[in-house]
Amino acid sequence: MQKVIKATNLDQNLSNVISQHKFDKIFILTDEHTEKLCYPLVANNKYIAQAEKIVIPSGEKYKSIETLSNIWMFLSQNDGTRHSLIINLGGGLLTDIGGFAAATFKRGIKCINIPTTLLGAVDAAVGGKTGINFNELKNEIGAFAPADAVLIDSVFFRSLDHKNLLSGYAEMLKHSLLDNQEEWKSIISFDTEEIDYDKLKQLTVNSVLVKERIVEEDPFEKGIRKALNLGHTIGHAFESLSHKKEKPIHHGYAVAWGIICELYLSNKYCGFPKDELYKTVYFIKDNYEGFMFDCDDYEQLYEYMKHDKKNESTEKINFTFLSDIGKIEINQSATKEDIFESIDFLRESVGL
Ligand code: NAD
Q: Are 233 and 262 in contact (CB under 8 A)?
């Protein structure tokens, strides 16, 4: 079972986790940025000091079969066995590809994730989805393969640029909406400009635990795991549109706007309280600047939603709504007219 660990002393926590097994060889996977910015923070650990380092390029186009093949080759040529360990030190891309390499090398070896982006920490590093892009399709090849442990330390987030930080924070906002009032209040009152990293670590761990709890209940997304799609049905459409317009936005920004639309629909279909809707909208408006689109883009957005792989058919777009904070309603739908109305609401409320 996957274990999420809040690091109190990174070096010691890491040693404790690794010493629970006897490994014949340890590999640490980094990308070109985490090698420079994050590896030095763990380099003195007695296990890491002996580990073989693998460095891959950063960027979504490298989440590929070629990079995966290079990782397999490195493991194979450097005496990796079924009793070896891979430590993934990086963001979501790296834990996705490193987790998949671990799941497939010698039919599966142990792996530890040390997420270094906020998005990686609260989303990608937990839940067991691993994989690569293939045939120009995102995450086309992969496996459900949870890491054996996930070590969270906000020390890594200090070198993240603000947009990457906020991108991950949007997933934390989502988790808090799925969780409870208290957590949601802490999330929307956190100062994202003057960051208190200790507080951020605690919020991050609470947030990961929401995901872990939901995934444990439904590892293969047959039911309640769909709750994690809150904000993503319309959010993914914004993300795709931004790529089509060649003005790509960070995933979490699209999710934040998706959350506004889907809470608007939650209010309309399930009675989500208006006060909580507006407080969430204010937080997003304050933190996430938009990209320009207009009514002429609505049909295109709708097309993207129809082709979301979470739908059971293109006729019915599947949503997760809330009837209140922490009250999850999965397998919902909305009329095209109401979806367009929710996008109007977003544009009016955040001034897009
Ligand atoms: P990423 O791993 O590409 O990291 C973004 C950028 O930040 C990269 O350039 C990286 O080198 C750099 N970086 C990483 N840590 C840093 C640090 N501490 N300081 C400075 N720079 C740092 O991407 P991401 O945004 O973390 O995650 C996106 C990826 O995660 C996508 O491939 C997506 O498909 C995947 N994902 C997977 C899941 C899942 O459930 N498996 C969930 C969400 C996203």
A: yes
- Element housing 49 (H / E): helix 46-50
Measured between alpha carbons, how far is 311 from 295 in angstroms, rounded to an integer? 24
User: From the CB of 37, is ligand 1 less than 6 Å away?
Assistant: yes
Q: Report residue 322 as tokens.
A: 């809330």
Q: Read off the pLDDT of residues 53-99 as tens digits, 9 standing for 90 and up.
A: 999 999 999 999 999 999 999 999 999 999 999 999 999 999 999 99
CB atoms within 10 A of CB 246: 6
Q: How many other C-beta atoms are found inside a 10 Å radius of the C-beta of residue 221?
A: 16
Confidence category of residue 2, pLDDT binned at 50, 70, 90? low
99 within 8 A of 145, measured Cβ to Cβ: yes
Please indicate whether residue 160, judged by its CB atom, sits closer than 6 Å to ligand 1: yes
Q: What is the pLDDT of residues 281-299, one digit of tens each?
A: 999 999 998 777 899 999 9
Identify the band that residue 1 occupies on the pLDDT scale cut at 50, 70 and 90. Answer: very low
Using the mean position of ligand 1's atoms as its centre, give its distance from the Cα of residue 227 in Å. Answer: 22
Per-residue model confidence as pLDDT tens digits over 123-140: 999 999 999 999 988 889
Distance CA 310, CA 320 (A): 11
Pocket test for ligand 1, best of 96, 97, 152, 249 (most atoms within 8 A of CB): 96
